[in-house]
Amino acid sequence: MIRVGNIKVPLDFDFTQLERFCADRLGIPESRLRSVKLSKKSVDARRKSDVHFNISLDISAKGEAALLKRLKNAVPVEKYVYEIPQVIVGSRPVIVGFGPAGMFAALVLASAGARPIVLERGYDVDSRVRAVEEFRSTGRLDTECNIQFGEGGAGTFSDGKLTTGIKDRRIRYVLEKLVEFGAPEEILYMAKPHIGTDKLRGTVRELREHVISLGGEVRFGARFCGYENENGHISAAIYTDSDGEHTIATDSIILATGHSARDVFELLYERGVDLSQKNFAVGVRIEHLREDIDKAMYGDFAGHPALKAADYKLVVHLPNGRTLYTFCMCPGGEVVAASSEEGRLAVNGMSCFARDAVNSNSALLVNVGSEDYGSDHPLAGMHFQRRLEERAYNAGGGGYSAPVCTVGELTDKQLCDGFGRVAPSYTPAVKKALPDEYLPSFICESLRRGIAEMGRKIDGFDDRDAILTGIESRSSSPVRINRGDDLQSLSVGGLYPCGEGAGYAGGIVSAAVDGIKCAEAVIEKMNGGKI
Length: 531
Known about the structure:
- The protein is of the alpha+beta class.
- The protein contains 13 helices and 22 strands.
- It has helices spanning about 20-25, 65-70, 100-110, 125-140, 170-180, 195-215, 260-270, 290-300, 370-375, 380-395, 405-410, 440-455, 510-525, and strands at about 1-10, 35-45, 50-60, 75, 95, 115-120, 215-220, 225-230, 235-240, 245-250, 255, 275, 280-290, 315, 325-335, 345-350, 360-370, 400-405, 430, 465-470, 480, 495.
- The strands form 5 sheets. Strands 13, 14, 15, 16, 17, 18, 19 and 20 form an 8-stranded mixed β-sheet that branches.
- Strand 5 (about 95), helix 3 and strand 6 form a beta-alpha-beta unit.
- The radius of gyration is 24 Å and the shape is globular.
């Protein structure tokens, strides 16, 4: 098979005619082609007068060696197959958390015959949807099941973005399995793939059922509360549910709890597990009208039926030495309530697959670290998060009402009545408040300077009617659970800190890959060092 890349096609290109197009492009009869598949598709909008697609094709044909010699932008490719060895002997491993890291760790271990037991403090995805919707409509928070906790993890109520900065052979396995369990096939070739929260829910459900069919267990409402160890090595996992406290004998715990399981960080600190501070980022969500962003990015091509809502990625370096950047951009989405603790407010962004909501939003973040935490305590970043979330909760007036203002109000440092062209999408409620009420001054200064700079990069980004909603505080984990080359905790053998919550991933795909790596490490141990 060969891959031919950097092919320019118009927006109205008929993708059902790939074979005919490919034959004409290669100058060969269609009869020589065995198969033609898209391997990559991206929008090129660098010139607003010529917005088009760039595609790459995977081609199986007779006489490929000759084609490789005469074609530019062509390389040979081999189909990647991820093989999972079967386990020989050992106790059933326990996985704590059923977000991307935990799900793929469970999938690999179940496929290997290890019959893993998953402990998920939240509910199954269908019950979780009901809990989240009740919170968003009434402000009644379930601290055990919310946008942070429950089947699928925090990513289930986001945009389902699958972009990642890592390079790893396991990425293809992750994408193929997501498609197998119901994700859109386009994630296999889109340059910026996403599933959307609506489709991701069904995918998560099907993956769980497959794990169970292979002998795994998923226990919902099961809150990890400790472990037993003998001679410095895990011997049991302890959890509580509605029936009380339970102990599971095991010599392997994959700890994939996500970045918001603060009680787990506290538990590990109390047990003397090796932890360290980790930099993360804090800021707000900015909302524009989707049609305005589409126009700014696509020009006169905005609204073309082949184009979905436009995305963007911006970064500016400021005179105060800080950097302001966009993160987790949700085209055609909404700002959602992402709190998980009483009296503390957090927000996030979410999009469905169609990305057709009125507004587009993104996080606007400034990095924070030890110099901002004011302490060298391993959990200082978590304490810093909590303080800001409490201030944001109070600035919103309580009841998980979010503090909002317009860009114009931020710039003028003065609140006005009502809103302009852009209305906030956050529920259950909003209250006008400047970020100065809940964010450190250096972040507010960075927002004021940085949004203006970003307006010079994207027309209208600094629209005075754009909405700012706080607080975006859960961009990543503020703690790292330190592990060795064998992926086990430096303090406790058999404990595998995993994924975003442990400080080793930054999104759905990288977390899933880290879950696979930890599962491989457990299999290797069960097989006496062989995999």
